Amino acid sequence: MLLYGPPGTGKTSLVEAAFPDLLTVAGDGDTTVGDLIGEYTQDDSGGYVFQYGPLVTAMTEGRALLIDDATLISPKVLAALYPAMDGRRQIQVKAHKGETIKAEPGFYVVAGHNPGVHGAVLTEALASRFSVQIQIGTDYDLALALRIDARVVRVARHLAHQVELGELGWAPQLRELLSYQKTEAVLGTKAALANLVGIAPAEDRDIVAAAVIKAAGVKKIAPLTLGKQLPASAARQPPGSTGSAHRGRPR
């Protein structure tokens, strides 16, 4: 199964909830075949033993394997998966005497894909091996059920619609909405709104800020920035002294 959609929509959390005994590979451009299948490692005695990777473990134990951000992994590396994901349901571990590993019942591969993310490439060879492909978007009703500020959820819905129309490149997803909730609890609503605007990519920030201003009823909102700092001379004054230290106190 392939889950695809913007980052932060809960793809990984969904799979973790579905499979309690899940094995996970965090994919990136540096992921190797050894990270999937296994490689030789040095033991305490100084010798070398072959340590099976999560793919082999999932196959032999009949467990689910999540390859997170799978499309950031080199297609040459992912090719090691293909025999396990098609009718053969087996792989050959060339690094370990050419051993053949067969998949036990219960073996299942789930991959996460973030379309549009730089470096994410979903090849035809990989896509064709997923029997089910599901688009995952942010569940805004869930966000409301989690008691996230309804105004912010409304902003996220509106911006997501603009993204669908091609008018905007970014909208807050569930991850950003949860982050907003945590920030608001610590720093207050104004700071949390400013942080939400600051998270947006620079090219979309003005549109996001305008939507936040309209929904929250504030006159102005801008990304969080540091205020004025104490002058060095004032910072060296002893506690309780008066003068420039008070005038230079950060606001």
Helix content: 25-40%
CATH architecture of the largest domain: 3-Layer(aba) Sandwich
Number of domains in the coordinates? 2
H/E order of the elements?
Answer: EHEHEEHEHHEEEHEHHHHHHH
Number of strands: 9
Provide the gyration radius in Å. 25 Å
CATH superfamily of the largest domain: P-loop containing nucleotide triphosphate hydrolases
Model regions low in confidence, pLDDT < 50 over at least 5 residues: 244-251
Structural class: alpha/beta
Walk me through what this model shows.
This protein has 2 domains: about 130 residues, P-loop containing nucleotide triphosphate hydrolases (Rossmann fold), CATH 3.40.50.300; about 80 residues, no CATH class. It is an alpha/beta fold and about 250 residues long. It has a 5-stranded parallel beta sheet with strand order 2-5-8-1-9. A two-stranded antiparallel sheet has the order 3-4. The protein has a two-stranded antiparallel ribbon with strand order 6-7. Helix 8 packs antiparallel against helix 11. The chain has 13 helices and 9 strands. Strand 3 and strand 4 form a beta hairpin. It is globular. The longest helix has 15 residues. It is about 40% helix and about 15% strand.
